[in-house]
Amino acid sequence: MKSIRRQLTRELLGATFALLGIGLLALYFAARDAAYDQFDDALRAKALAISTLTMRFPSGVKLDFSDRFFRGFDDRKPRDFFELWDENDRPIARSESVRRANDLPRRTGKLERPTRWNLELPNDRAGRAIGFVFKPNASRLRDRPNREVQLVVASDREELDETLW
Fold first, then answer.
1. What does residue 47 show for φ and ψ, rounded to 5 degrees?
2. Section 43-64 average pLDDT
């Protein structure tokens, strides 16, 4: 025969563990979203820095950028990657870390709402990328239309994955 005390204890323990599990799960997902947001903000900052160095000249679009400007974009130990395309989908510039590999996947949103996604990087590691279209600085072109260019910046997500684990 079941006692009321034993039945109440079991039900209370079950409800407590269920609520605790739900709370911990919600906490994990909130922390995961915050980590992704911080990583995406860092990617966006790198992309905006590259976009401000992109200029349109009468001869075309040029990037006044050296991979040494940002650590990680060089080809010694590549952790960051970028590629820039013109309005005709021709590559304008790419980081040294991309030069030996295929193009980065091209997914772009607007500057205000860039596209973000996970991908496999050219060095066969897991990464995260951000892409958007923008109009480069054209201070010397007054009578020509300033067309948009596409930029994709990607980073190795090893540290992000370690944080999430």
1. -65, -40
2. 84
